[in-house]
Design a protein that fits this description.
The chain is an alpha/beta fold. It is built from five helices and five strands, in the order H-E-E-H-H-E-H-E-E-H. Helix 1 (17-29) runs parallel beside helix 5 (144-160). The termini are far apart.
């Protein structure tokens, strides 16, 4: 899918969704819902990659996005990620969308829509609230078929057990 970059420095642009999908596959192999996230710095380098770890860590906040944001802040020694982009395989939930706003992520790229639990284009629509102090640029549908297939496979296998 092609999408406008709204003034992005195209010298540093690359599609990082394959890396997020690889993290999602790792999550699935570990029995987690297959969601992966990647934080990319303004210079194009990947500073964090994470996958869902809620069940393994027994932590309801251990979504891929939350873990990637925390790691990126640690790596960059920063409390905000203003010049960073986040790539995620599934539309972030309301909790993650709130964290994305607080982190001041510049651009959010995600693959599959989440009509049930999404918090960006569905459900809470966090970035549309007047209380939201930061709204990233949003690009959806990037490699959505691949991300959706992982999710469908994961849940089909769970129903068979």
């Amino acid at each position: 899918m092609l999408f406008a970059m709204k003034g992005a420095n195209e010298n540093h642009y690359a599609n990082h969704m394959p890396t997020a999908l690889a993290a999602a596959a790792d999550a699935m192999a570990a029995g987690e819902v297959p969601v992966g996230a990647v934080v990319v710095a303004a210079d194009g380098r990947i500073v964090a990659v994470a996958e869902n770890q809620m069940h393994r860590s027994k932590d309801p906040t251990a979504h891929a996005e939350m873990l990637a944001l925390r790691e990126a802040c640690r790596v960059l020694d920063a409390s905000r990620l203003e010049d960073c982009d986040l790539w995620v395989t599934l539309e972030p939930c309301a909790m993650c969308a709130g964290a994305i706003a607080h982190a001041r992520i510049r651009r959010l790229y995600f693959a599959a829509l989440d009509e049930k639990s999404g918090g960006v284009l569905h459900g809470a629509k966090v970035f549309q609230h007047p209380q939201c102090h930061h709204r990233p640029e949003i690009y959806d549908g990037i490699m959505a078929d691949e991300a959706s297939q992982l999710l469908k496979q994961f849940f089909a296998e769970r129903r068979q057990k």
